[in-house]
Amino acid sequence: MDAKSRPTLGMLQLQNTPIRLPGAISNPVTFDFPVRYLQVPGAWTKNVVGTDPGVVTAYIEAARQLEREGVAAISSACGFTARFQKDVAAAVKIPVALSSLSLVPFMARIIPPGKKLAIVTYDAKQLVELHFNGAGWSMKDTPAVIAGIEGSESWTEMAKPDPKFNVGMLERDVLAATRTLVAANPDVAAIVLECSAFPIVAATVRREIGLPTVDFSTLQRFLMASVTAQASASLAAAE
Amino acid sequence: MTRPTLGIQMLDVGPIHLPGSYHNPTTFPYPVLHRHVPGARVDVVTGGDRDILGAYIENAREMEQDGCRAIATLCGYTSHFQAEISAAVSVPVATSSLLLVPFVERLLPPGSKIALLTFDATRFNEGLANGAGWSLKTSPVIVAGVEGTESWDEMRKPQPGITHAMLARDVMATARRAFDAHAGIRAIVFECAVFPIVADHVRVATGLPVFDYVSLAGILAESVAGPAGIARSTAAE
């Protein structure tokens, strides 16, 4: 099977300069499948985070372009695009998973009944029911608690067109938010990282907090596994 | 000794060693501990007998004590035990790939259907769906089983003599029956934990995304131990 025929993930990025630190979803080395990156015209942190409806059309158009180019599945590089999930999924025929928030119902089921799920996000003040509904669930019937890194140095940088930050800064800010949330909610049993930059520090969170943790790249690996047949099996199937 | 990432609670039947099987060491790229649940025979578990729950709980507690960081349960018909087994241990537990249905539903265009390919559709019921967090009444799921096929006969034996070709034939025939009866099927979920043996065959033959027990185990394992493929892919650069 040659490289060009390998199923490719289409990833809809913001216009902000993509973060390519090790482990970042905008760093192609993070994945063992090819990724076609496309920056969505007019999509910036400031208008995608939150509830501005204007940019959904650009996401739909970009998803259609990626489908025409032949990608096998579509994802995004900002978890707040969960609010576009239904519209983008409706516009193409290939599977679409725009946000790790989509993993919340599953993660809530695999922890002991009565325990809570922690969601750690870029900005807890702006993450609302609209995003949860887009990801297929509601805060009303999901035992989740939320903390964000709003106000931190990482948060300030990520809002800029050209973010300048490093692993140490992000570790400090994400761990601080997570530790505060878990200290206030000792019944938390698992963590979902919303922000597309957080896979960079997911291993640190998993180790330092000691709870099962999934992130944006978990979602994307899972999505691609569903559409990818290993070469050996394709041969077996062709027999 | 390496701490097992995943403990696999197996039915009390002989192993199937084919590639893609839960019993084949190449199927999971992380350390796995296999244990039989005493008395968990195919007919008992797929028949919905709740008396077997105690054996699953005891087995799960042993797995946790032996260091397993997460537990996955066989077979897919144990989803109605999800809350009880999960409540008995402190590590994450996934009883069934049925848990993936609400997630998969969300990935598809509105109006799409999911083919749920199962060991025995006549034994599938609302309780199994509810245990996994969804309902047959509201989710667009078409349930189709391999009951009556040679694969089904083999899987009911104490030592299944199944082959890749046999299973591929029977699972694909079942999938085609679902496609013929229902337009708009855009994804496939395998309930049966033996079907991952033919997951790639079905992906190639149908062109549809396929979610199964191995997909389920992958998320579970990554949640506790990080992505298993990273070192390999980085080394390959």
By CATH, the topology of the largest domain in chain A is Rossmann fold
Number of strands of chain A: 8
SSE run of chain A? EEHHEHEHEHEHHEHEHH
Instruction: Give the total of beta strands of chain B.
Output: 8
Shape of chain A: globular
For the largest sheet of chain B, list the strands in their spatial order.
Answer: 2-1-3-4
Short description:
Chain A is built from ten helices and eight strands. By secondary structure, chain A is α/β, with parallel strands linked by helices. Chain B starts with 5 loop residues before the first strand and ends with a helix.
What do these coordinates show?
The complex is a heterodimer of chains A (239) and B (237). Chain A has 239 residues and is an alpha/beta fold. Chain A has 2 domains: 106 residues, Rossmann fold (3-Layer(aba) Sandwich); 116 residues, Rossmann fold (3-Layer(aba) Sandwich), CATH 3.40.50.1860. Helix content of chain A is 38%, strand content 15%. Chain A is built from 10 helices and 8 strands. In chain A, the strands form 2 sheets. A 4-stranded parallel sheet of chain A has the order 2-1-3-4, sandwiched between helices. Chain A has a 4-stranded parallel sheet with strand order 6-5-7-8, sandwiched between helices. In chain A, strand 7, helix 8 and strand 8 form a beta-alpha-beta unit. In chain A, helix 7 packs parallel to helix 8. Chain A is globular. Chain B is an alpha/beta fold. Chain B folds into 2 domains: 107 residues, Rossmann fold, CATH 3.40.50; 116 residues, Rossmann fold (3-Layer(aba) Sandwich). In chain B, 38% of the residues lie in helices and 15% in strands. Chain B contains 10 helices and 8 strands. The longest helix of chain B is centred in the C-terminal third of the chain and has 18 residues. Chain B is globular and about 50 Å long. Chains A and B meet through helix 3, strand 4, helix 4, helix 8 and strand 8 of A and helix 3, strand 4, helix 4, helix 8 and strand 8 of B.
